[in-house]
Amino acid sequence: MSVAAGGGAAKIDKTKLMMYGLGGGVLGIYLAHVLNEVTGTTYFSFLAGLGVIAAVVMGADATRRVCSYGIGTGVPSIGLMAMGMGLVAAMFGLSIGGVAGPIIGIAVSMGFGYFVGLLTNRIIKMNIPVMEETLMTLGGAGAIVLIGLGVMVSGVIDYRTIIGNVIDTGYIAIIFIAGSLAILHPFNANLGPDETQDRTLIHAVSAGALAMFATGLASLETIGSEGIISMIVAAIVWLVFFRRFFELVKRDSAGVKGTGLLPEGGL
Amino acid sequence: MIPPIDASMLVHIIEIVIGGLLVGIGVHFVPVGGAPAAMAQATGVGTGTVQLAAGSGLTGLLSAGLMMNYTDSIFLVVISGAVGAMIMIDATMIVGNWVYIYGVGAPLASAKANYDPITKDSQAPYVAPGTVGQGIPTVCFVSGTIGGLLGGAGGSLIYYVLLKINGDPGLSAFFAIGIFVVNAVIASYNIQGTIEGFHDPKFKRVPRAFQVCLVASLIIAIFAVLISGGH
Fold it and tell me: What's the structural domain count of chain B?
């Protein structure tokens, strides 16, 4: 593999990550929906957020693999594209599929990603061997992130509720940008010759937790005070994983020293 | 629930595809310099294609949405969106030029043309050694304005059509952004992240982006017209 921006070899296999990401994402979304429906509350909405974090890790790994080739347009472009594909497919799935909507949306998004990857390789001649597969993964991750965060805000998998609680309130803007940042930021922040997969992915978990926190804040207005559970869970996940990320930064760096503030007149 | 399929749906699909193509082609006109331009070592605005396209596209959507409050005419809405995007991209380029001229102290020069095709000014003597031009010279500025026109028109056309189908402004706007982003990223892959404008040799690659954007927009459009507003 030609490594332009990425560093060490992958310790965790991509298929394994994809299984965890897709499985965890779908499981989280449906558990949140079913438990909320059965108990008649919205206490379990945070489970959808945990599913989102699994999908974010999968998406961040795909970003890492494709951007290692140096796509020339900057890492953010591919994260935004993932959310663009995910948005259209997710809303389509929810609109026609009812409770099966998330599965349809994720499948459509992955199919679309594969197709766009195929076209960019064949017609635009990007010649990146992992393009099809990574855009497929990113499409799936984008769809899960959108649906999962949408379910966090609305509490259930129901198109009308999601339209009313997520789209018409404008929270879709937060979900769109916080979700795409969670996918694109980890590799964008860690890239370089010393990039390591575990550090990037741990960072992805903390970035996903931040997206979950922001969405939890939004859900306070829609599902009520139950949204505070999402915020607490997100804050704990962020704390734990950001500490681990900082440990890995110290492991991978030559040295970490506090320099203090600049002296008076030091500028 | 899938709505009944009729002939008007076909028209809507074609309109969305035209919108997507306008966005994809419009990106090729915008002078994008990426990170080198941010250090005044390349011609163009110092940021990525997607950021520029998103910025002008969102302003276009805002002005198109504003116009939709007053009229139902597709021409007025699309023109309003195009003008909004043009104002946005022009403001970005002129403020960028102020920074390059007065802040960095670099002369505006294109490295892709020896003579500016519009002003006929000589360019090569002003390109600093070791760089590929600086700032946004006249030809790039004009090109960027055309890019804003096409992108804004495309984005607001998509928004207009979707609003007619589902009647939900929020859903339509974010759908338009989704379609916009996908086409803008495909176009930016085609130019490999940087381009000076229509005088750049890379501009000859437009047909490739045209093909990919055509197919990608077509697929998205088919899904987009099937979505109901949920009201």
Answer: 1
* Per-residue confidence in pLDDT tens, chain A, 267 aa: 334 455 567 778 888 888 899 999 999 999 999 999 888 888 888 999 999 999 999 999 999 888 888 777 778 888 888 888 899 899 889 888 888 889 999 999 999 999 888 988 888 888 888 889 999 999 999 999 999 999 999 888 888 888 888 988 889 989 999 999 999 999 989 888 888 889 999 999 999 999 999 999 999 988 888 889 999 999 999 999 999 999 999 998 888 888 888 878 766
Q: What are phi and psi of B133, to 5 degrees?
A: 95, 170
Domain of B175, in residue numbers = 7-226
Phi first, then psi: give them for residue B135, nearest 5 degrees.
70, -165
Q: Which pLDDT does position B229 carry in this prediction?
A: 63
One DSSP character per residue, B135-166 reads: E--HHHHHHHHHHHHHHHHHHHHHHHHHHHHH
| Tokens coding B197 | 């404008």
The C-alpha atoms of residue B229 and residue B162 are separated, in whole angstroms, by 10
Q: Is B112 a domain residue? A: yes
Strand order in the sheet with B132-135: B42-43, B132-135, B109-110
Q: Is B159 on the interface with A (CB under 8 A)?
A: no
Query: Predicted ipTM?
Result: 0.84
- Assigned token pair, B53: 């396209």
In a domain, B148, yes or no: yes
User: What pLDDT does B157 receive?
Assistant: 92
Q: What is the CA radius of gyration of chain B?
A: 19
Q: How many CB pairs under 8 A join A and B?
A: 129
Cα(B4)–Cα(A141) distance, integer angstroms: 31
**Which chain B residues are Cβ-neighbours of A112 within 8 angstroms?**
216, 219-220
Euclidean distance between CA atoms A212 and A231, whole angstroms: 7
- Do the beta carbons of residue B143 and residue B160 sit within 8 Å? no
B107 belongs to a structural domain? yes
What SS3 string covers A75-137?
Answer: HHHHHHHHHHHHHHHHHHHHHHHHHHHHHHHHHHHHHHHHHHHHHHHHCCCCCCCCHHHHHHH
Residues of A in contact with B226 (CB under 8 A): 92, 95-96
Q: Is B83 a domain residue?
A: yes
Phi first, then psi, for residue B45 (nearest 5°) are: -80, 140
Q: Tell me the shortest Cα–Cα distance from A132 to chain B, in angstroms.
A: 13
Two tokens, residue B34: 């990426």
Q: From chain A, pick out residues whose CB is under 8 angstroms from the CB of B180.
A: 84
